[in-house]
Amino acid sequence: MDTTADPSATPEVPDARATARSATRAATQALFERLLAAEEGSAERSDARDQLIELHLPLVHHCARRFRNRGEPLEDLVQVGTIGLLKAVDRFDLERGVEFSTYATPTIVGEIKRHFRDKGWAIRVPRRLQELRQQISAVTSEMSQELGRSPTPTELAQRLDCTVDEVIEGIESGNAYQTLSLDRPDAPGDEGTLTLADSLGAEDDALANVEIRASLEPLLDRLEPRERRIVLLRFFGGMTQSQIANDVGVSQMHVSRLLSRSLAQMREVMEESTV
Q1: How far is CA 58 from CA 52, 64, 100, 108, 115, in A?
Q2: I need a surface site. Which of 35, 141, 230, 239 has the fewest CB within 10 A?
Q3: Rounded to an integer, what distance in angstroms lies between the CA atom of residue 104 and that of residue 109?
Q4: What's the mean pLDDT in 168-178?
Q5: How far apart are CA 38 and CA 4, in angstroms?
Q6: How many CB atoms lie within 10 A of CB 111?
Q7: Contact 31, 55 (CB under 8 A)
């Protein structure tokens, strides 16, 4: 058998990623050995810990990118994930024989998920309802497969060993996770025009005067046309006596006398109707 190497054959090139992973594992092992050998609170221990954190920051970025486009800035997720990395470094036991990245990933991801659970709600919801909502979501998926349909609140309550009211409260709490901005366009395609805030109703100040207007209407009908017009212009039109005088064609003094007489007449009729 000819064992001469084929000169035309391409030599095998080591996988760059595998080489990098191997180097990271070796560096991690050496740094943890330094960390354990150093005295508590020493500069050597602090330096080894800092290098471990810096070495595994790419792992944090990798985990954080899994949660992009969920309403939280990537930079914030990286910061939260770094907290998980710190916890993993401080809790890791080298003697377990587990690769550090395997141990740290669930801790980092768990910290990010906790951030979404605690801080990602548009309206602050008690932790009890947040956890109940997660349980309802998980049990709903299981029971939907078992029953071939969505479970009722009563069935969910029986499975979760809680009341129906608690199930309904947990389901409704999900509405607080994401709210609509009042600056959002009122309808698709309305960008730059009406917003949701523009379509919301406001309290009508005139509603408070509806009953008063209804009570005054029969009293105004008793006045002469000119006097009725003067009263309406003064108290409903907001005009001054001078403006009313110009509009009606009389003197301001005469407008004042007519207003006083009309109001006295209306007051007298109102007092008679309440006796």
Answers
A1: 11, 10, 13, 12, 19
A2: 141
A3: 9
A4: 68
A5: 53
A6: 21
A7: yes
Give me 138's structure tokens. 């998980």
* pLDDT, tens digit (0-9, with 9 covering 90-100), for 116-144: 766 655 556 566 776 787 788 788 888 88
- What residue type is assigned to position 251 of the chain? S
**Where do we find the tokens 């992973």?**
21
User: pLDDT for 201-241, tens place per residue?
Assistant: 666 666 666 777 777 788 888 888 889 899 888 888 889 98
- Answer for the pair 112, 67: CB distance below 8 angstroms, yes or no: yes
